[in-house]
Design brief:
The chain is mainly alpha-helical and 623 residues long. It contains 19 helices and 14 strands. β8 (477-479) and β9 (482-483) form a beta hairpin.
């Protein structure tokens, strides 16, 4: 039986801002702020609150799967069937229909709770009677979680009030201080990560933060901060200033340092599975997993497996743009590869042949269109996800595949992401004064991932597939001596970086990373639902001929720029949103669009400051 790790909310009294003397004497039979800070066991218990916030996994029940699958939908991979009534929908359209600043302060409030909690921990550790090495470890843990809190706030809000202490109620100038600059906060974040990765233990027990967890998250967040600074500057809009290359280089080198801690440990490696990383009852000991959340039958479950099994995926679906971004098995884009079978008939049956083997581990290779009357487990785009499906359980009709029963463990951060963080940071740093990017950088990252030998489920006889190794060829990449030349490449992105980003998109698809990637790259124009006067591929589904589906619902509309869409075409997903004219239109350089890279500082916080006689700034475009 699995060991069950309970992440609990603990000692909220210790993290409150107020502190009143209700008793003249400390109770002897209860934990208090005075008698709690005595040993490592209590420190471990105290730190579990952070795990709930930052290691959510597949979440619990139906709570949007912790950001996996449809939980990360503000991107060009996944389209929601509805864009109303959710926090994500507030920024779904460009420009936003509501021009005033949103009043939602859930993210702000939660992260400042975590920040205060970390600072209380850091203030108490020096006073404890424990070994110095233990103090260093737990200080590293506290600074790690403080870095995560500050990073989350910076990602969402840009400039923020940053704290390295927990102010008391009488320190009003600190409690209501204005926002610190983004770069000064990221400098603090890098310092915290540096301390943590050098002082946290390499092993602190099962499912506890260790040196390699710190390194992995350092690689993720410092890549985010470095590239955001490069492509945006200090903020958004005309008030943004460029960040100097030395600062960008320092942040990216932080990402490389974190990556190398994990890579050079020798503890992790890429195996010959992909789907199993997301659909296994236990991830314990899996060398591809740096950290995971554990679920246990009868105690803790998630609903993601059921939603990838027999249920219709009504929340939405992936689009043609994502499917077309998968390479053919020869390592070339579909527009370049002679192996692509979908040129004349782009049906799922044809277009899925001879493709990147991860495609078969991520999506069903047959059309399953909602309202066709032919299948269960359908999607409004016709492309059905199975990335989080244990196919053996489905075949055996296990009870796990229905409702909230899934005990599948969730990868919180994977070795493959660390490798992809490394290679992107190495390429980016080479453009701002860092060491020259080399073939070795590809060999220890993308080429390691491509060594996977994957077998398509149910194929008899079974055949293993992998993608060819990539070779640096000047300002491009090649496979088997052929230069990769993708006509769909964004002309603003050089060929090597385009392929690095493609590998990242495919490997981490539906794992909650794409939205953050588009944000840090300043590429929200990829979200536009029209391109060159035609409907964009991101809102088109699979190709169908209506004659093949005589029972199809009349509400299923098609789009065919070159033929009769009453007979055949791509599923026009936008008809499912209820308003096919409500297109997203991001205009690069226009403040009403650019402001969407940052959330508004919540009005509740602005009003709190005002009521206390202080002022806090607002983000550009939300004033």
């Amino acid at each position: 039986m699995k060991k069950y790790i309970i992440y609990i909310g603990f000692l909220s009294i210790l993290t409150s801002f107020g502190c009143e003397d209700y008793l003249s004497k400390e109770p002897l039979d209860k934990l208090t702020n005075e008698n709690f800070w005595v040993n490592e066991t209590n420190l471990r218990s105290y730190s579990q609150d952070f795990y709930v916030t930052y290691f959510e996994g597949y979440a619990q029940d139906y709570r949007l799967f912790g950001g996996y699958f449809s939980g990360d939908s503000y991107n060009d991979d996944f389209m929601l069937s509805t864009a109303t009534g959710t926090d994500r929908a507030q920024r779904f359209y460009f420009p936003a229909t509501n021009t005033s600043a949103p009043n939602n302060n859930v993210v702000w409030k939660k992260q400042y709770e975590m920040l205060r909690k970390a600072n209380i921990m850091l203030e108490k550790i020096p006073t404890m009677n424990i070994e110095e090495s233990a103090k260093q470890h737990w200080t590293g843990v506290g600074r790690f979680f403080r870095a995560l809190a500050h990073s989350t706030l910076v990602k969402e809000f840009g400039d923020i009030p940053a704290y390295d202490i927990a102010p008391g109620p009488d320190q009003r100038d600190l409690l209501y201080k204005d926002r610190d600059s983004r770069t000064s906060v990221v400098d603090m974040i890098l310092e915290d990560f540096d301390y943590a990765v050098e002082n946290v233990r390499a092993d602190d027990g099962t499912l506890q933060v260790n040196k390699y967890v710190v390194g992995a998250f350092m690689s993720r967040w410092m890549l985010f901060h470095g590239t955001w600074a490069k492509y945006h500057g200090t903020t958004v809009g005309t008030s943004s200033n460029a960040v100097d290359n030395a600062t960008i280089k320092r942040y990216l080198e932080g990402a490389i340092k974190g990556s190398n801690v994990v890579i050079n440990s020798g503890n992790f490696k890429i195996g010959n599975t992909y789907n199993a990383l997301f659909s296994s009852e236990s991830l314990a000991g899996n060398p591809e997993i740096v950290f995971y959340r554990e679920y246990v039958s009868g105690l803790s479950h998630n609903a993601l497996l059921a939603y990838n099994a027999k249920e219709d995926q009504e929340l939405g679906g992936v689009g043609k743009d994502l499917i077309d971004s998968y390479l053919c098995v020869d390592g070339l884009p579909i527009s370049q590869s002679p192996l692509y079978k979908g040129k004349n008939d782009p049906s799922v049956q044809n277009s899925f042949q001879e493709r990147d083997p991860r495609l078969y581990d991520t999506f069903v290779d047959s059309l399953r269109i909602m309202n066709s009357g032919l299948h269960s487990a359908t999607s409004p785009t016709g492309y059905v996800s199975k990335k989080f499906l244990n196919e053996k359980w489905l075949a055996d009709n296990e009870s796990y595949i229905t409702g909230l029963l899934s005990p599948v463990d969730a990868p919180v951060i994977r070795y493959a992401e660390v490798l992809l963080n490394y290679v992107e940071a190495r390429y980016e740093v080479s453009l701002v004064g860092g060491e020259v990017f080399t073939q070795n950088d590809l060999d220890i990252s993308i080429n390691r991932i491509r060594q996977r030998q994957l077998t398509k489920w149910g194929e008899t006889p079974s055949v293993t597939r992998s993608l060819p190794q990539v070779t640096l060829a000047g300002n491009a990449l090649s496979v088997n001596g052929v230069i990769i030349n993708d006509p769909q490449r964004d002309i603003d992105i050089d060929p090597v970086l385009w392929e690095i980003r493609r590998e990242r998109r495919i490997e981490l698809v539906m794992e909650g990373r794409r939205s953050a990637d588009l944000n840090r790259w300043a590429k929200y124009e990829y979200l536009n639902t029209q391109k060159n006067g035609q409907i964009s591929d991101i809102v088109l589904g699979a190709w169908i001929k209506k004659s093949d589906y005589p029972g199809i619902n009349s509400g299923v509309k098609l789009y065919n720029p070159d033929g009769d869409e009453t007979k055949e075409g791509y599923i026009a997903f936008y008809y499912y949103t209820g308003d096919k004219t409500a297109h997203r239109s991001f205009v690069k350089g226009e403040l009403n669009s650019e402001r969407n890279y940052l959330r508004a500082v919540p009005l509740t916080e602005i009003n709190k400051y005002s009521d206390a006689g202080y002022t806090i700034g607002q983000n550009p475009g939300w004033e």
